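Suppose you are handed a protein chain with no further information: no name, no annotation, nothing but its sequence. What can you learn? This example shows the usual starting point.
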Amino acid sequence: MTSTDQQPFLSVRDLKVHFSTEDGVVKAVDGLSFDLAKGKTLGIVGESGSGKSVTNLTILGLHDRDRTAIDGEILLDGKELLTATERELEQLRGNKMSMIFQDALASLSPYHTIGKQIGETYRKHTGASKAEARTRAIEMLRRVGIPQPDVRVDDYPHQFSGGMRQRAMIAMALVCDPELLVADEPTTALDVTVQAQIMDLLKDLQQEFGTAIIFITHDLGVIADIADDVLVMYGGRCVERGTKKEVLRAPQHPYTWGLLGSMPTLDGPVDVPLTPIPGSPPSLLNPPTGCRFHPRCTFKEKVQGGLCSTEQPLLEITDGRGAACHLTADQRRDYFADQTATRSH
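A reasonable first move is to predict its three-dimensional structure. Written in structure tokens, the prediction is:
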């Protein structure tokens, strides 16, 4: 996803994250690779249970080390994260990399003011005084658009609206100017107007700081607004990736077609029903053989020899573009063209 002459700021190679449970081993992420450059946004999209959040919690080292088996490589600005100690990760978290969680109310402490929580993060990584940390907290609240920040800095989370709490979370995540920001569905619980404001805020702050952003979502509409590149996950694996334009305008995988087909459009006819993806996501305790999407795929009969159910399709990446599917390139192009024509009439 990055040009060959530019070293990626974040590089993930063949990442596997497996959890031990009473019922067996959960293969939450099963061989994932991608790159991300500074100042760029990677959108990771997929249904619940596809491995999106697990991937990014692993990048930040926020996993249970006693129950988690991890293999692969994660390089952040050249530093290997999977072999880093907890002390080293603590220094990186909040300073070099940071995360915005989906539920700001659950992530913020109800017992401390917004300003104290932002300020403590700043003090931990910079050694600033309490007065300096308070000044920095007010500055960050102003930067994320909180009105009267010098007054609201002393409010508690329950005194903020949902949108303001999310802005406060962004302020806390950015207080130490991290170079990597992971946003885990940060706008899911917000109304459309506030969602748009948060998206604009993230884009403005990225332009100001040059931050690399991983944006996790199940909503391709959000991806269309914020991402430079898109990675589509299903059953713990990447099934498609490319630039935003490539994935949204000329998708190559039946799962991506299904995601697009289940979304309403503003320019299409209002009387065309949405087409849900049949079936349910796979169990990661006992995933299907072959292509993990094949039990739900309406195109598997087009592939000769029943390969979809027996052989895992390779994800062949050329210039950052690829899809893991046994359909030929011509078949994929023709089937998607037919789907597009059907929806537009």
